[in-house]
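Board notes (copied after class):
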Amino acid sequence: MSAAELSKPIVIHGRGIVPGVAEAEALVTRETISGWGGVNPMKGEIIETRHELVGQSFAGKVLLFRGAKGSSGWSAIFHFARLAGTAPAAMLFVDMTAKAALGAVVTHAPTVTDFEMDPFSVIETGDRVRVDGGKGIVEVWKQ
């Protein structure tokens, strides 16, 4: 592969939920995330003991996850994360629910869902990802 081919991103199209543009390192889980009791908003950290990302921080990262689980407190927890400066830079999720959408809105993080292809087949933790929530475009640079 040429240097130009290596620098070309993989592009995934979806439906934008929250407009804006952010670029950051990806943090990926195929699991749902429990907001109330599963996240420490002051640290931007997953604390749900049985979650595969327990102890890891999503602060400033592009968070790719299945969707939200738990109570309606999910949006409040992610709102607190935004206020604390520990929210994800952007959010990508595949299971659209009111909890996940509202959480994305109160977080103010560019968000995309309803992808044309499975984002889990392309994006891995550590990849560089640019999210354009207004256009519903996700660009991925493999690491």
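Comment from the instructor: The chain has a mean pLDDT of 91. Residues 90 and 109 are 5 Å apart (CA to CA).
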